[in-house]
Design goal:
globular; 58 residues; mainly beta; 12% helix; 1 helix; 34% strand; single chain; three-stranded antiparallel beta sheet
Length: 58
């Protein structure tokens, strides 16, 4: 399973919010995304925390 996370915003404490997008959407948006804000996770079927797609300390 491949998951693509894109940084949405960060608060004043440096805690950032990420949104999960499909690999196909990431490929379409690649020229508009800043690569330092994109994480590609390759792994098993484990479920991410989906409440607002928050992924701390990646």
């Amino acid at each position: 399973m491949i998951r693509v996370l894109v940084k949405r915003k960060c608060d004043e404490f440096g805690v950032c919010e990420y949104a999960e997008i499909s690999l196909a959407r990431a490929a379409r948006l690649i020229d508009r995304l800043r690569l330092e804000d994109v994480y590609i996770l390759v792994g098993g079927q484990e479920k991410l925390k989906t409440r607002r797609s928050f992924w701390p300390n990646v």
